[in-house]
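Now for our target.
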Amino acid sequence: MNELPYFDTFLSYLRLEKTLSENTVVSYRYDLQRLFSFLTQHRIKKLADVRPGLLSRYIRVLFDIGFAPASIQRTLASMRSYFAFVAAEGEIAKDPTELLESPRNSRYLPSVLTVGEVETILDSIDLNRRGGVRDRAMLETLYATGMRVSELASFTYEQIIFDDEIVRVFGKGSKERLVPIGKVALHWIDEYYKTDRPGLARPFTDSTVFLSYRGRAISRMGIWKIVQGHVKRAGVKKTVSPHTFRHSFATHLLEGGADLRTVQEMLGHANIVTTEIYTHVDREYLKEVHRTFHPRSQGGR
């Protein structure tokens, strides 16, 4: 397919017959363009080849790369409207969204990697390949800090406090938190700045740490694809996304003996600010917990 069938006609239908606002129409357009890109990547040649299972996989991808639940529900609404429209036009015989369920967050919780699986993925990255050192630094940072993929994508050099081995992370609602990063991830970031990043930077490049081959910040989908590629090459059979590294980060700290409230502070979960005891955790204590319980804080196996 060069484009989604009846795409412009469908948008006109939303404006004229459904009388949706222009903002909603624009949102539907972006949703469907993103869907078309996904279908193209999966070599879908015609709309009749789209199956409910593929659309369910697409929704899971959106969860994995950090889309908000409200955005995913709107994506479902736009897909349902579009496929119902093209079915009514006779483009497809059966609407693949009829049996598509609205996802529950618990159904899409990613699996947890073992420490060994994390190291297998990290050690399998080919450092001689273009972008290899960048990818190693990126995945090390994901696992060392438990950042959300959106936080990693917007991560800048100014957020790193090298002397304290801490990063400033700006989470949901621009809330700032301090997270220890450890020596291993800092080592790989330093290697990346010495090797890969100078070749990726362009005159317009800002201080974003992890760059695409075009010299701009890597998108959430771009990070997801990079993770998928290295997981496949490592031979790890679990379903793994960037969020899996965040989930594994928290799980490994807790399994090692870290207390829940400190891990919640590192993750930036909003519920810790509802109780006074969670309003402040000393940064030295945070660093000590990270050093003691994180498998890669000091470079040891």
The longest strand covers residues 166-170.
